[in-house]
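Instructor's aside before we start: the two examples that follow are unrelated to each other. I chose them only because their records fit on one page, so don't look for a connection. First example below.
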Amino acid sequence: MARHGRRIRTGSAKGGGDRSRRTALEVAGLALIAGLGLMPISGDAADPAGPAISAQAAHAIATRYFAREIAVEGSVGEGILRGEHWAFPAKFGVAGRAAPDPILVHATTGAVSWAGLADHRARVESLKRKPR
């Protein structure tokens, strides 16, 4: 109700509803659908502007992963961007011998993994069980 008790008319005399509001919603819906088609989905090509995670941030993630999960004397080498992942060589011992599999950090999500982790843990467990 409007001031002074007068009703404001929002639709046509035929009861079609508020056409401008409906049209605005239709346009917004179409824009949303069109926008969703342009959004990158997992597996699509990488963003041409570059990865969401910088080389320095990815190196910090890989270094924390090395310290927490691998936990032996060693270090993380310089990384390179390979597709959707930053790849960092895991270097072991004083000599810095590189493992065959790099530590991978996803360039968008920051998820980290290392294919050699299961073998590494098995080796560490077998060393713990050996009598000294």
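Example two begins here.
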Amino acid sequence: MPLLCCVELSEYEWREPLAAGLGADEILALVLKADVRPRADLRETIRLTTLAGTESVVSFGRRSSVTVGRTATGRGEVMRNMQVVEFGTQVKLTAVPQDQRVRLTLHFESSRQLPATADDSPPDISTTEVSTTVTLDPGKPALVSSFGGNRSSVLVVMVKPQP
């Protein structure tokens, strides 16, 4: 097994809930269908090349000024109260070759601003955190997690050995 691996992690958001009782293979088959776009959006794909047995970390983020309320001034004016909020994704992983497979220890964390519900209220923030260890066949996608209510999110990972 090579010393370098490229780990690809993709998050999909389904426009409607996934049926209860679906197994990992069934969910993965839905994600890998060529016509997945009408039913789901690819939120992000992160690719990280890592040295076998070494923890690697990647973070993507942004700061956004958001309205958190309004204050009436003594002159009858209204001032918006602003706050800076950080959103983003962080992935920590360690890939260890085992025979012809790879044991992947993965920590995925993300936060996103949801659509505003009112002008003067703080934004709703969606957070996701997943920690797991899985054994993967190189080049074969695997379901890491699936979660949701009205909308479902699915995390899929694949490890590709590098020459």
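The CA atoms of residues 51 and 76 lie 62 Å apart.
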